[in-house]
Amino acid sequence: MDTRKRGNTSEMQVTSIRLEPELKERLRQISGEQGYQTLIREVLWQFVEQQMRADEVRPYSAEDRRSPSHPPLLSMSHIRATFRAVSQQEEQCAITGQRIQPQQEMLLGLTTNGEIIALSMAITK
Question: Can you give the pTM of this predicted structure?
Answer without folding.
Answer: 0.45
